[in-house]
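From the methods appendix. Each design record in this collection lists the tokenized structure first, followed by the designed amino acid sequence. Records were kept in a plain field format so they could be parsed without special tools. The example shown here is representative of the layout used throughout.

RECORD:
FOLD TOKENS (288 positions):
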């Protein structure tokens, strides 16, 4: 068995290959694209031994994982935050590089993350793309409100982008370039409305046959859009052994500071998928 540590950057993939005793077998680099990874697998195959590799979780790591697994490697994606804590056990330093990851793999210390299958990845992409569009639309609406306040024209209607609000905006006579900013923002908002509506129609169609969505819709405050997003972010519910693990993954657990008789509770932790919607979705459902 050979143990490979993979250090990924935007334009190259550095690798460090160790044997069972921890002796360096080979060091090198490859391009992090399909051709580069194909040549890397052929290059390492000359040693005639199976490969267990570890790569730090980051953008692009999943592509490397999939390509090398197709080539016969066993690849684990390591939790970046946990790797920093385990690195001194392998090399007496907290600098994470290919050799450190190879040592963690050799010592069976890789804090591997759960990898969703292609179906769950597709579900997440649909839900996250809709959320991405909604955030852009909200940003444009906030910009329009800011322009009105800048010129002393606070919004007198409940929905500035409804029928009455659009009539009010059409009657505005602001100097340029602010008038042009509002006009361009409204065009973009209309385009985003159409894209979001199309996304939601697809989510509704796919959610009807989802094993979790109908059950989630029975919870007060959760409709089919929130239900699909929650189901996509959680993936296989059986991977959480306890409800506490699920709450920790969602990032809804408060921070706890305990020392002796002191027991302080702080704000919500920042654990779980960053900027992916699972925490936002649960918060929205609770507010409804």
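DESIGN:
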């Amino acid at each position: 068995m050979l143990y490979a540590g993979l250090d990924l950057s935007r334009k190259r993939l550095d690798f460090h290959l160790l044997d069972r005793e921890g002796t360096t077998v080979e060091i090198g680099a490859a391009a992090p694209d399909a051709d580069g990874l194909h040549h890397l697998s052929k290059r390492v195959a000359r040693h005639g031994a199976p490969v267990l590799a570890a790569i730090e979780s980051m953008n692009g790591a999943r592509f490397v994982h999939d390509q090398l697994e197709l080539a016969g490697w066993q690849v684990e994606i390591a939790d970046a935050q946990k790797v920093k804590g385990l690195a001194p056990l392998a090399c007496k330093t907290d600098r994470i590089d290919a050799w450190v990851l190879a040592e963690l793999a050799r010592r069976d210390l890789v804090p591997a993350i759960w990898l969703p299958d292609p179906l769950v990845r597709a579900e997440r992409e649909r839900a996250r793309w809709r959320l991405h569009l909604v955030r852009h639309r909200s940003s444009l609406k906030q910009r329009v409100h800011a322009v009105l306040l800048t010129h002393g024209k606070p919004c007198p209607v409940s929905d500035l982008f409804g029928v009455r609000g659009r009539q009010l905006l059409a009657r505005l006579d602001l100097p340029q370039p602010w008038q042009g900013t509002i006009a361009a923002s409204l065009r973009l908002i209309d385009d985003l409305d159409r894209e979001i509506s199309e996304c939601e129609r697809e989510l509704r169609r796919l959610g009807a046959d989802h094993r979790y969505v109908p059950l989630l819709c029975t919870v007060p405050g959760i409709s089919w859009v929130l239900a699909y997003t929650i189901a996509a972010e959680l993936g296989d519910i059986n991977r959480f052994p306890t409800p506490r693990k699920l709450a920790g993954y969602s990032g809804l657990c408060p921070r706890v500071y305990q020392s002796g008789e002191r027991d302080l509770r702080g704000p919500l932790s920042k654990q779980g998928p960053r900027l992916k919607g699972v925490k936002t979705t649960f918060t929205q459902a609770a507010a409804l």
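APPENDIX NOTE: The CA atoms of residues 250 and 280 lie 9 Å apart.
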